[in-house]
Amino acid sequence: MMHTHNRYPTRLAAWTLMILSILAFTTTRVSAQQDTSGESAAEAPAISAPEYVVRPADQDAADFTPLGNLDDDSQTVYLEFSPYGAGIKSIQLPDEFETVKFENHITLQSEQVNSDNLRAVPFAAAWLSLNGSMIAISGNDIEPLWREIEPGVFELFIDDTDGNPVARLERRFTLKPENRHGFILTESIENLSEAPIRAVLDTFAMVDLPKAASSYGGDRRRIRYGYLKSPEQQGTSMKVHVDDELLSRNKLLGKRVEAQYGKAYLGSRQVWPNEEVLPGAQRLSWFGFTDRYFAVLVHPVFNPDSITSADQKLLEGITRIDRYMLEPYAEAVDATQALMMRSAQMEIAPGETGERELGVFAGLRNKALLNGEPMLAALNMPEMIVSNLGGICAPCTFQWLAHILMDVLTLFHDIVQDWAISIILLVFLVRSCLHPVTRWSQIRIQKFSVQMQAMGPKQKAIREKYKDDSKRQQQEMAKLWREEGINPAGMLGCLPMFLQTPVWIALYATLFFATELRHEAAFYGVFQSFGGWGFMSDLAAADGAIPLPQAMHFSFPLWGSVTSINMLPLFMGVLMWAHQKYLTPPNTATLSPEQETQQKMMKIMMVVGFPLMMYAAPSGLALYFITNSAVGIAENKWIRHHMKKHGMLEIENIKAERANKGPGFMQRMMQAAEAQQQIREKGVKPINPASKEFNRKQK
Questions:
Q1: What angle do CA 343, 346, 348 make, to 5 degrees?
Q2: Contact, 55 vs 155, CB < 8 A?
Q3: Where are the chain's structural domains?
Q4: Which of 38, 509, 558, 606 could cross-link 387 (Cys pair, CB 3.0–4.6 Å)?
Q5: Contact 361, 297 (CB under 8 A)
């Protein structure tokens, strides 16, 4: 019987904490109350009186041998093992480091321990249901249950109460062949008894990926999955469909519920099958966690050259997946959750063995890398590579456009062999393609500004004359606009610039998520040649011009983590100030005092606010904004010079051009509206005998 202590949130499922407690094998505090949140917690199987005993291991679990070589950067994965359920203590990448100094290897998975010494161990065995009896098969480092047979292979024996052997469990971790990323986990149950047995195995999958060191861009950890449609919808197609929901990990966390010490997450919830959490994933092919750069995914194991049906790409042997919390009271970004897989029931005859085989990808979330591994390519995993920030920007971040931009960026890099120069070239190319739209837009805006300035004194006179009659003031203003030949559509000259927004959002997202920029120095590492200066040594991190002592590091939600004095955002502010000072059309003559104040605030936001917001941004993004601003200034200056050279900003020329073109669409619409108003108020207006219309009718 487990010790009960009312520490965890009220109405958490007892099964949740029992799963966690056997991983810790310590005193457990359990609250066995029913969930009231409206979401079903994982159902706990009935626990019968002990019928079986796990045979203690005769080996020191500290002697478990790792797989791989962490000091060989030609290898792709390094596994350390835990005595808890013969799981994984850590998954590290020999060829990837946390910083450009190559000091610490990237750790994608690690054993998690909370304040109560409860543990979540990645890919650890937790429970075995044997003929309906639940058996804890985790053990610990004090009383180990699992024995190492050879590196990466572990066994556990189960006897009946009389000491007769009943079953042997084996867990075999094998690094993928040909130095591919990840490993294969084979779990088998051998029947050592003289009667058939029924077995269900509960095994942990991955735990949360580590929280990013910098909070710039927010928490980009997501749950991703691939699935097959229903047999009727799938038909003969071999394609694995990839989720397009871009679910954040908060989707798995769910909603907080009232608990004893405040709001808390449910200790457990079913993840799959669950239409609310994984919509459309009724036939699961693969699933896992991703962040900005890395991924840990569970997938089926098969030979891509020999499959004949899409069903061979299904994740066989798993009937459900549940999410468990380690710290229910923690804030979302700091909470730790783990996924657990329940196997299908295995009917095992005497002397026979039931087996389940799972593949695990652990590595960089890179399209070329995923396409280079046939099994992952056959599962359509490269399609999960998206450059999308989500939120309100998601609908206008077209992935086909982002893929084109990334392909062009890669092409430039193949030519110049430097990602910073490639970013600059990409900005030049994009602005060149958009130049006709920009030129048309700028000409309309500049002309409209000149017209409004020329009309400013007359507008002011009308406001003063009819200040007590707003209706008459509007009528006179409309009449003045017609007399001056000003088209209100001129105000829409900035609309094409807004239509370009998806291009710049896609380019921003492409650079933000591009794994190719990670740990890449700018301009062939020229700044590092000055005594190892760290300026722009990593295009995926802030420029780091002047590092700050550890005690001076701080963080803001919009900034992310600030660990240095950065030069690029300051330069960005200077460029934006230059743009505001020299290139913004002087149209204050037509603005009210309130509008002038608003315009000044906008200028301050652009010159000060935006560079501040970008202060801790990756230097690759800052370089993109700086290049875009500099090219934009030069482009706008050239357009204005061209307009002045050809007299396009002279008010007389503008009026003459307007007169030659005749009334525009908006002006014709206004005239039609006024004609209708005239008919309603005074009847049909007589035709002027001198007009062209009268002469045409006479003919």
A1: 150
A2: no
A3: 14-207+245-272+316-349+358-368, 394-654, 663-698
A4: 509
A5: yes
* Among candidate residues 296, 276, 106, the one with its CA nearest the CA of residue 205: 296
What pLDDT does 590 receive?
52
- In the block, which residue shows the tokens 């003031």? 473
Can you state the percent helix, strand and coil of the chain, rounding each to 5? 40, 25, 40
Phi, psi of 375 (to 5 degrees): -65, -40
Angle in degrees, CA 296, 300, 303, rounded to 5 = 120
pLDDT at 451: 74
Q: What DSSP character marks residue 685?
A: P
CA max distance for the chain: 120
Chain-centre distance of CA 301, in angstroms? Answer: 27
Cα separation of 52 and 145, whole Å?
Answer: 14
Q: What's the confidence (pLDDT) of residue 664?
A: 54
| pLDDT for res 1 | 28
Number of C-beta neighbours around residue 647 at 10 A: 10
Using DSSP's 3-state secondary structure scheme, residue 185 falls into strand
Torsion on CA atoms 615, 620, 625, 628, rounded to nearest 10: 160
Q: Tell me, what's the pLDDT at 7?
A: 34
pLDDT at 671: 60
- Nearest 5°: the CA angle 290, 296, 301 is 130
Q: What's phi and psi for 256, nearest 5 deg? A: -75, 150
> b/e string for 321-355 if b means 16 or more Cβ within 10 A?
bbbbbbbbbbeeeebbbbbbbbbeebebeeeeebe
DSSP secondary-structure letter at 67? Answer: B
* pLDDT mean values, one per 10 residues, the chain (699 residues): 32 34 31 34 47 85 86 92 94 93 92 86 96 91 89 95 94 94 97 95 95 84 93 92 88 89 90 85 92 96 92 93 91 91 95 95 94 95 88 76 91 96 94 85 76 77 80 80 65 59 85 92 93 92 90 77 89 83 56 66 77 87 90 86 78 68 57 64 59 53
Under 8 Å between Cβ of 371 and 384: no
* Segment holding 510, helix H or strand E: helix 501-513
Model pLDDT, residue 695: 56
Q: How many CA atoms lie within 13 A of 211 on its CB side?
A: 14
- The answer to whether the bond into 279 is cis (omega within 30° of 0) is no
Please give the pLDDT value at position 18: 36
Instruction: Give the model's pLDDT for residue 683.
Output: 62
- Is the Cβ–Cβ distance between 123 and 186 less than 8 Å? no
pLDDT for position 190: 97
Q: What is the pTM of this model?
A: 0.80
Angle among Cα 102, 212, 399 to the nearest 5 degrees reads 105
Report the alpha-carbon distance of residue 463 to residue 485 in Å, rounded. 20
Residues 6+ apart with CB under 8 A from 166: 52, 130, 158, 159, 160, 191, 192, 193, 197
Tokens at 108, concatenated? 């994608």
Half-sphere exposure of 662 (CA within 13 A, CB side): 3
- What is the rounded CA–CA span in Å between residue 621 and residue 509? 9
For residue 149, the SS3 value is strand
Query: What is the rounded CA–CA span in Å between residue 686 and residue 671?
Result: 16
Virtual torsion, Cα 30, 32, 34, 37, nearest 10 deg:
-10
